[in-house]
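Extended Data, panel c. Modelled sequence:
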Amino acid sequence: MISYEEIKNNADIRTYIQRADESLAALGFTEHSFAHVTRVAETAQYILETLGYSAHEIELAKIAGFMHDIGNVVNRVDHSQSGAVMAFRILDKLGMDAEDIAMVVTAIGNHDEGYGVPVNAIAAALILADKSDVRRTRVRNRDEKTFDIHDRVNYSVEKSVLKINEAHTLIKLKLTVDTRYGSVMDYFEIFLERMTLCRKAAEKLGLRFQLMINEHSLM
């Protein structure tokens, strides 16, 4: 099997991630580079490890997490689908087993809220890991006066924690938000569709999804 470490250190894949992030920076998007994809991979690992999935499935989820945004090098529009096609080409060339490729490609192709569906556990873990990565350090714009709503919302999040309870019945996204920069309504304006997808992803894993902002339960 191709390992996560091999994927993480692959020069071609790192180039695609870096160039994709540069394109998003030019378009005014928040950070989608190595900090984001590594965090997504590690969060997907945490979710599946906690729920008792196999080491093999966890490794595939980490690979999908690291590669999930490479499609942005093509275009932001439909980046999950173009990223899935790119991932197929890369992983096939590296000699990954077809069954493993299928799992990774399916997860990547279903991670975006526009068309994504948590069709299996790996896809569900990727969705939850990706959509929960909301944090101040993803904001590139340093001029608060020119923040758009995405800048305001991400900058307002002082702390973000995704946690599964001991009974393995609930996954909770707990945010600490500084409302001087973004309101709870701002968050819902741009993230409602994402949080709805997180709820569906949690259900695929046999969990209930809960969103808490400043100690108030909102979902």
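The chain has a mean pLDDT of 94. This feature is highlighted in the accompanying rendering.
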